Amino acid sequence: MRYRFRLATVRRVRRAQESAAREALHHANAALVVAIAARDAAAVHYREVETADADDAETLRRDRLFAELAATALARARKEANRKASEAALAHVEWQLTARRVAALDRLDERRRLEHAVEENRREIAVVDDVVTARFVSASRAEGAA
After folding, report:
1. pTM value surpassing 0.85
2. How many structural domains are present in the chain?
3. Alpha helices in the chain, H assignment, sequence order
């Protein structure tokens, strides 16, 4: 009798889900890297604008406006980086859950495969025992008839 895992279709679906979750995690991590780079660039720009020297009142006003704009951009970039970090963390959790589901089915398959092998071995031993017993009975009858 050939072994067949009854949940093979379910495992195939779960593996596809795991693959999709892994891909989503990859995209979330890539988006996080981009958001962190944007945040860091905004922080550098803010520091550059903040430290500018002003000679007159007009330049001071202009520099202050640029500093406020840079501060706003930095705050938005920080918020976006935090949001992307949260999304990446959620994607990681989702991938872990799907990976665990696949691993559970893999372990179940392995256990059932071993049980099937043991049962097949028992059947083979029973067949060999029947053949040996039949030969012994035949040989005994032949000796008794002679």
Report:
1. no
2. 1
3. 8-50, 57-145
